[in-house]
Amino acid sequence: MDSSATLAIVLASVVAAFYIAAIAFAVVQIGRTRDLSDVAKAVWVVAVLFAPLLGALVWYFAGPRPFGLRITRQTR
User: Fold this and answer.
1) How much is the CA Rg of the chain, to the nearest whole Å?
2) What is d(CA 71, CA 76) in angstroms, rounded to the nearest whole number?
3) Where along the chain do its domains lie?
4) What is the SS3 string spanning the chain?
5) How far is CA 50 from its chain centroid?
6) What is the pLDDT of residues 39-58, one digit of tens each?
7) What are 55-73's pLDDT values in tens digits?
8) Is the separation of the CB atoms in 55 and 48 below 8 Å?
9) Which residues lie closer than 8 Å to 73 by C-beta, 6 or more apart?
10) Are 57 and 63 within 8 A, CB to CB?
11) Is the distance from CB of 23 to CB of 56 less than 8 angstroms?
């Protein structure tokens, strides 16, 4: 195995680790939010698990706290 193949494997492993971490982070945040009912949480978790990249991105950008911001009901 040459060094370029080894580098590709290491890089792919790092990317995969970040990908899995992002999905786990989204699922944990969904579970911790108090703004959603249990049914809504289940729908979000299913969306993140069955469409991981799209589900996690949509949760991050459109979930109860888009971009991690805490928006009050008066602002919405």
Assistant:
1) 16
2) 7
3) 3-68
4) CCHHHHHHHHHHHHHHHHHHHHHHHHHHHHHHCCCCCHHHHHHHHHHHHHCHHHHHHHHHHHCCCHHHCCCCCCCC
5) 12
6) 988 988 888 888 877 877 77
7) 777 777 777 665 555 545 5
8) yes
9) none
10) no
11) yes
User: Kindly report the CA angle at 61 between 60 and 65, in degrees rounded to 5?
Assistant: 70
Q: How many residues does the chain have?
A: 76
On whether the CB atoms of residues 26 and 48 are closer than 8 A, the answer is yes
Residue 2 and residue 58: Cα distance in Å, rounded? 39
Residue position matching structure tokens 């991105």: 57
CA 75 to chain centre: 25
> How distant, in Å, are the alpha carbons of 34, 38, 73 from that of 20?
24, 24, 32
